[in-house]
Automatic annotation (TrEMBL):
Domain Creatinase N-terminal: 26-142
KW Metal-binding (keyword) present: yes
Protein name (Swiss-Prot/TrEMBL): Unannotated protein
Peptidase M24 domain: residues covered: 150-355
An annotated Gene Ontology molecular function: metal ion binding
Organism annotation: freshwater metagenome
Keyword set, alphabetical order: Hydrolase, Metal-binding
Matching InterPro entries: Creatin/AminoP/Spt16_N (IPR029149), Creatinase/aminopeptidase-like (IPR036005), Creatinase_N (IPR000587), Pept_M24 (IPR000994), Pept_M24_MAP (IPR001714), Peptidase_M24B (IPR050659), Peptidase_M24B_aminopep-P_CS (IPR001131)
Amino acid sequence: MQRLLSPIVVSGRCDRAFLVASDGFGVDALLVTSLIDIRWLTGFTGSAGVLIVRSQSSTLVTDGRYVQHAIDQLSIAGAEVEVVLAQVSNSLLEVVANSLRGVAKCGYDPNDLTVRQLQQYSASCSCAFVGAEGVVQGLRRVKSDSELQRISQASEIADRALAQVEPLLFSALSGSISERDVRDELELLMRRFGADGPSYETIVATGPNSALPHHRPTSTLLREGHSVVIDVGALIDGYHSDMTRTYLLGECDPELVRMHQMVIEAQACGVRAVRAGVVGSEVDGVCREVFDRHGLGHEFTHGTGHGVGLQIHEMPWLRRNAKDPLTAGEVVTVEPGLYRVGLGGVRIEDLVLVESTGCHVFTHSQKEQLCLQSPPTT
C-alpha cells in the first residue's frame, strides 16, 4: 500500500541559492529559467515560469494558466515568493526587467538559456548578465527526508512491478513475448501500484539489442539463449527511481554467462565503494578494474553512475573525469555494464543513498540468480 507523502517544505531555498550565486559569481540577483530548478526552489510545477531570486525577495513570473496554481503551490511549500502575471508575449521581458531594476549583475545558468533568449533579456534589462552555472543543481544534490521518501517509494514500486513481470519472462521460453509487451506490462503495473508514471521509457532489450545501452523496445521477441536487459524506474511526485536487471533465458552462450558474472562482481564492488568523501571517479575506477582484470574493460562503454532526483540524470556523476567528492544525502546509481555487438549485453544497476560510512540501497530486486531455465512450479 502506498504511504502518505509528507509535504516538501522549500522555505529558505531561494536564500541559499542567492548566497551561492552572490559568493561564487559576484551577482546581485539570479535568473532561474529551468522549470526543474524552479520547482525545487518554490514548489511550482507548471510548464511556464521564470524565477528572479534576490537578496531580500524573489519573484515568480508565470502566465494566466498558472497564477492561482502557483499561489496555492507556493503557499503549501512555504515559499516566500511573489507571484506575478505575464499576460502577453512581451510582458514576460517587461516583468523581468522591472524585477531587476537596480540590479548591476544578474546570474543565469548558460545550460538553461538559449543565445536568443539571453539576447532578449540583455536588450530588455539594464543589468549585465553573468554566467552562473550549476548554482541550483549543486544545491539539489543533497536530498531532504521528504525527497528521500519519494525516491524510496518509487524504488519500491519498480521492485514490485519487476517481480510481477518475471512470470512473463518465463513464458517467453515457450511463447511469443516481445520487448514492447514486457515494457507495457511494467509501466501498467507501476501505475497500478501508485506511480505517476515511469521515470523514463522503460528499456527492454533482448538478444543483440541488449548490446545497445539505451535501446528502445521493439517487436523483437524474447528467445531462449538470449539476455534480456530491463532498465525500469517509477515516478512519484516528480521524483525518480532507477534500476536495471539482466535476465538470461535458458541455455545461454558461455560468454554471456561470464559477462553476467563479471558485471555482478563489478557492481557489488562499486556499491561497496560508495560513501561520503569518495570521488565519483574512484567508484567508476573500482568497477573498471574488475573488467580490466578479466580483459573486458573495452566493453564497458559508459560511466558507472549518476545522481537521481527531480531529474533521472543529475549531479553528481560517477565517471572517469568526475572530481567532486560524494556527500552524505546524495542519491546515485551504480550501473556498470558490458556490451558485445552481435552477442548481447549485461547491465546491473542499483539506486543508493550516500551515507557517511557506506550507502543504503533503495532497489532490492534479485540480481545474482536471474538465469530462467523453466517456468516455476506451482
